Amino acid sequence: MLQVKNIEKYYGSKNNVTKALDRVSFDVEREEFIAIMGASGSGKTTLLNCISTIDTISAGDILLDGEKISELPAGELARFRRERLGFVFQDFNLLDTLTVEENIGLALSLNHADAAGVKGRVREIAGKLGITDILGKFPYQISGGQKQRAACARAMVAGQSLLLADEPTGALDSKASKNLLEIMTQMNRDLGATILMVTHDAYSASYAKRVLFLKDGRIFNELLRGERPRPAFYHEILDVLATLGGDISDVI
Fold this sequence. Notes:
- This protein is of the alpha/beta class.
- The protein has one domain: Rossmann fold (3-Layer(aba) Sandwich).
- Helices cover 36% and strands 25% of the residues.
- A hairpin with a 2-residue loop joins β4 and β5.
- It is globular and about 55 Å long.
């Protein structure tokens, strides 16, 4: 579904150039849950920004469902993000002046979908995530866990092809982190969501089906979870992180 082909990303002027990504290539199959790990400065957030079209690549190609997103004209980027990409944020980014139902359906409304269609789709996705009973409430009236589910429903409501998450548990306590990761696992397993998550946290990465490790802008290693239980996968991730070198506290 997603193809990243030999992409490179440079920053700076010709006298002071930094190569943030160095010929990075990988594929993402539909309904995969992939984590991207690496120390600070490894290029993981730059990679996610390029895939999300927030940043542009210097060389190579990125294709989503066969479409070269690296060649989309500026006027189409906002529509592309709204219709094809879903985003999971640390702080939910729900609008306090809208109900949960209105927050979830916002992307559909911006795409000028008919009101009945928006309502039906919102109720469908809310039902699958167990939040139908809070649709009429405002964000300040619901719990943190309910906000997480509402934000995840919003990320999927328009049938987005790919969900992107940049350090989604970075600002959360351990209980809230576990809750969000279990919601994302449910979205992947039960709703068929394809998820690409950047994280510095081995515990979070252990929920994924595959982990890519970046070092100095290149893919350093890759782990497949297979049928291993999550705790065993977590320890295997730690073993790879130990071989990355540098200050291990940067990545765990």
